[in-house]
Amino acid sequence: MTVSIRDLRPGDLSDAEAVARVRGRALPFLLNTAEGIAFELSSAHPARHYRVLVAETDDGRVIGTAQVGLAHDSPEPGRSTVNLYVDPSHRGLGAGGLLLRTAEEYLAARGAVETYAWVMDEPAHRAFAERRGYRPGRSSYFLRLDLTAAVLPPLPEALPAGVEVRPGSAFAEDPRPLFAADAETTSDEPGDVGTEIDDYEDWLRHIWRNPVLDKELTTVVLVDGVVAAFTAVHTDGATRYSTGMTGTLRAFRGRGLAGLAKTFSLHRARAAGYTEALTGNDTDNRPMLAVNRRLGYEIRVTETRYAKELETK
Questions:
Q1: Which of 68, 73, 167, 236 is the most buried (most CB within 10 A)?
Q2: Is residue 275 part of a domain?
Q3: Where in the sequence is the domain holding 44, given as residue range(s)?
Q4: pLDDT at residue 210 is higher than 90
Q5: Same domain, yes or no: 100 and 204
């Protein structure tokens, strides 16, 4: 059986569905939808040079995929990312190595000097990366909460003076306050590749208008009318719920507002019929990890961020 690499076909939802299936089998604690995958490709900033690579067998079966692009919003030029997934039932056919080589050549040709990849913290996955010159760095957890069995913290009978809780949909006419909150909190996130969110139109295009963003379950906490904390929620529209970003602005930290946002959101999610909640945490982000543990999330998988210097073309 031979394996070839091609690009995801734009506008082909069945192709995106095949990619979503592979990602789901390779990493079941990551929310994947065909609509989200297709949208990410169609809405990507041109400077990102984003590609979704597909590994396909000679009988037309999709067995692997990789997300590839420049970190165009990083303050450090030349940074890039590649994250690949291979269907566990089709490992050993060379799809992973072929995907990675194709991705590295593409990124180097576009000026990338270093690339970063998330790798499952398991011996076979780590060995795959290290044989190809990648070096380990920081790590991150995937966490899961069974909403059918979880005992969620009760909602407060009354909120403190000046505190309001609203859904993200309340900002439909003017989401700029959420853009500002996302920009500040994202810049403070621990990570290997810094991110600067400063392009409002791009934020609208690929974050606010993302079809998997659930604006009703996305929850915002205001203090005296000012956005103080929020949790942004992605769903598959059926049973799976995932927090893509939770943050508190610097002036309001230490008051339990992120936990308040997540508690309201999880209660609403369960009432809406969602049965599984997913999230992720940098292992050094102890405040957020503590919040998620109090809510009942359990660590299921650890990933390590690997890096490699590239030879530019």
A1: 68
A2: yes
A3: 3-141+303-309
A4: yes
A5: no
For residue 159 the two structure tokens come to 């909120």
146: in domain: no
Residue 254 located in a structural domain: yes
Listed in sequence order, the residues at least 6 apart from 127 whose beta carbon sits closer than 8 Å to its beta carbon are none
How is residue 175 written in tokens? 């989401």
240, 126: one domain:
no
Q: 10 and 112: one domain?
A: yes
Q: What is the CATH number of the domain that holds 61?
A: 3.40.630.30
Query: Which residues are bridge partners to 27 per DSSP?
Result: none
12 and 79 fall within a common domain: yes
Per residue in 216-251, pLDDT tens?
Answer: 999 999 999 999 999 999 999 999 999 989 999 999
In 3D, which of 148, 122, 155 has the Cα closest to residue 136? 122
- Look at the block and give the residue holding tokens 């760095």: 137
Tokens of 177: 């306050």
Same domain, yes or no: 223 and 281: yes
Helices marked H in 68-165 — which ranges?
Answer: 95-109, 123-131
Strands of 219-223's sheet in order across: 3-7, 51-57, 62-70, 79-86, 114-120, 298-309, 135-146, 276-282, 240-248, 226-235, 219-223, 163-167
pLDDT tens per residue, range 36-82: 999 999 999 999 999 999 999 999 999 999 999 999 888 888 999 99
Q: Based on the fold, state whether residues 21 and 86 are members of the same structural domain.
A: yes
Q: How confident is the model at residue 191, as a pLDDT?
A: 64
CA distance 177 to 193: 25
Q: What's the number of domains the chain is made of?
A: 2
Q: Measured between alpha carbons, how far is 237 from 212 in angstroms, rounded to an integer?
A: 8
- Record the pTM: 0.93
Q: What separation in angstroms does the CA of 19 have from each of 32, 36, 50, 156?
A: 9, 11, 15, 42
Q: Is 192 part of any domain?
A: yes
First to last CA, the chain: 32
Alpha helices in the chain (DSSP H): 13-26, 34-43, 95-109, 123-131, 176-187, 200-203, 257-271, 286-295
